Amino acid sequence: MDLYEQSKISKRAGEGIVRSLRSAELMSRHAIGNLLLAITLFCSAGCLDASVTRVYNFTVQPLSVTRLCKTKSLVAVNGMFPGPTLYANEGDRVIVNVTNTAEYNITIHWHGIRQLLSAWSDGPVYVTQCPMQTGQSFVYNFTLTKQRGTLLWHAHATWLRGTVYGAIVIFPEYGTPYPFKAPDEEHVIILGEWWYANVEEVETTALLSGGPPAIANAYTINGLPGPLYNCSYTDTYVLKVAAKKTYLLRVINAGLNTDLFFSVSNHKLTVVEIDGDYTKPYTTDKIVLTPGQTTNVLLSTDQLAASYYMWASPYISAQNVSFQKIQTLALLEYEGFTTSAAVLSSAFPAANDTNSVTTFSTSLRSLDNSVYPEDVPQTVDRSLLITVGLGIKPCDENHICQGPNRTKFTASMNNFTLVLPDVAVLQAYFFNIAGVFTRDFPDNPLFPFNYTGNPPANQTPGRGTKATVLPFNSNVQIVFQDTSIQGIESHPIHLHGFSFYIVGQGFGNFNSSSPASFNLVDPPKRNTIGVPVGGWAAIRFKADNPGIWLVHCHLEIHTSWGLSALFLVPDGVGPSQSLPPPPADLPQC
Fold first, then answer.
1. Paired strand residues for 298
2. Once rounded to an integer, what is the mean pLDDT over residues 319-323?
3. Cα torsion for 168, 172, 175, 179, to the nearest 10°?
4. Residues 548, 498: Cα–Cα separation, whole Å
5. Distance CA 155, CA 159 (A)
6. Closest among 476, 569, 585 to 117, alpha carbons compared
7. Within 10 A of 37 (CB to CB), how many other CB atoms are there?
8. What is the DSSP string of 111-159?
9. Which pTM does this prediction carry?
10. At a CB cut-off of 8 Å and minimum separation 6, what does 20 contact?
């Protein structure tokens, strides 16, 4: 399906793509019209070609937005919250001209995009680039290789991704149909979190205090909190549908710190794609997404003509933590419905419903057919066991800290907290700048212990800018192991530069018998894995993409605390396996 065909599918969906009862605000019909016009213009420029170049212009700017009866100035793109959707076909080259007019330094990350030979455009601040300062611009340039479905883009400096985010919609190559029933319409559903305060201030306050951050004041669907929140009855996303149709919902969790369940009352959802990779169809009444995950689902409008609530609610695996308990609601409205009240089916899942999360995550399988075969590594060249979890560090002198026993929270992988330098690590690697990072991140914990049992007495990790080297084209297996230090919880681990196969997962400690349960035939393929609470997850991938790649927890507070590491993949042989020099406009520190 190409962009022109998609624009025809979406034409009668214009109001439903992003419509609130206060339709004049932000993601309005006018904005939707501009998007559809842009799609048509792009197609006129060459949709008949095998691949084309899509050009977008992003202006990062302040924007005043009112939610929950309070107005604040936030950082947004092109005056839109959520930001604009990028549309392209598999195989297309995408160029995004980004200009920063906001008061904060910023970068943009294209979450889930492989960035083959384009690591300079990946976006994590001080990893692949220095930030764009106020008044600066940078051109992100990448090609969509063997990916199709839904991904997302977001800021990757401080907590700016709390408001600077949007969808990436990748259609199949021109002339290639979907491997499932073609939908009558498609719609982007972005889940998020909202704070009264600016998200940058929430992060700053938490880091200064050493304690947990302030909880979100609301969850949102397409930027709107819905009727359960104060002053929000009219701030409700509405999706208009017709009976006996099939709709493709492209669901994204753009939230900062919360896994979210998503469901549509009285309707089944059939999963057909996750994180840019097709799946075998899996039908369920609800899905769950960690921050950074995406899921495409088919919905059939096979119910009585009425208005039905769509909803998102939190999954909280950690014990004794504060969180926003009020769900966000949106409306699925059938044409010609006559009932005055919307239908809300069954109770929301418990916030600690790990059984539902496990059932969902272990039920997913890659499509793996003759058209879309999967190349799951059957052998392993490099095997790593990486512990993920929290820790503590001493309070700053003359401060009163709010972490455990007046300490500060920190976090680590293999007992090392990542410290970002003031020079981009990729630049330091490419130009051989000494003293910026080391290549001694351990393949295994230096001090093994009962990871999910009683925690060790010393809970203060080391600190540094450490990378581990993954030889080019090596088959890599990583087991991410949760720990009980400061409490077990699920960690959504995101790997930049690669998609990976989730070959196994379980509870407790990974051990020598765990690989017996691995799925090496059709495991799901993702870029972000929710490591089970008090458990482990095993992934495999081929290290075929040269560069410096960040791996980190996608709970934003954990990233701020340093739950991250670096992978260095050196060049292979020849230009087709080597990272080219940086673009001339790459921001300098």
1. 248, 270
2. 94
3. -140
4. 12
5. 8
6. 569
7. 11
8. ET---TT-GGGS--BTTTBPPBPTT-EEEEEEE--S--EEEEEEE-STT
9. 0.93
10. 27, 222, 224, 234, 235, 236, 237, 238
